[in-house]
What we know:
single chain, 202 residues, mainly alpha, 62% helix, disordered C terminus, transmembrane
Amino acid sequence: MCSGNFAKCLGITLIPLAIICVLCNILLFFPSGKVAEQSSDITNEVFYLGGILGSGVLMIFPALVFLGLKNNDCCGCCGNESCGKRFAMFSSILFAAAGAVGAGYSVIISSVAINHGPKCFTPNNSTHAIYPFNDGDYLTNRTLWEQCESPGGIITWHLTLFCILLVTGLVQIGLCAFQVINGLIGTICGDCCGCCGVRRQL
């Protein structure tokens, strides 16, 4: 597969992943699907916007660049027919790196959130939500979940959405890493299916 076509496939894959991350982050603002009475009742890591900014907005730009690589007008650059395509592939490496950084940010925020657990109301704190767990102890001891009285199902809600953000972020990092390799190949060798090849045939 040509480097331009491969990059386009990566771009097509990254866009729905970015949308999923944005939606997950938005849902986290509504504990167990309910409107929080006050912002302090929402888990702090939600406000860091790992899914919206990191795996969302910062991932859209690389995805659009990857999608446009195949249609990039590469011919006739400084007297060298292939240098335009090579430069486009090189620039995609920079965007891929930026996307990987954004996804990495989301992964870190998600990991911290999973370790801390959600904020919830406990029998001893019924007026404001707190972090009842320490260092991920609730992950291996399900009986601790009883400490969270409300909102109902908040732990499952918290884990599910942040795990989706974590896994999706890791996938995005992997795809961006593939594009770095693909971009290097395209920069060095050019796009085997580029318009310059067509011009030579003519």
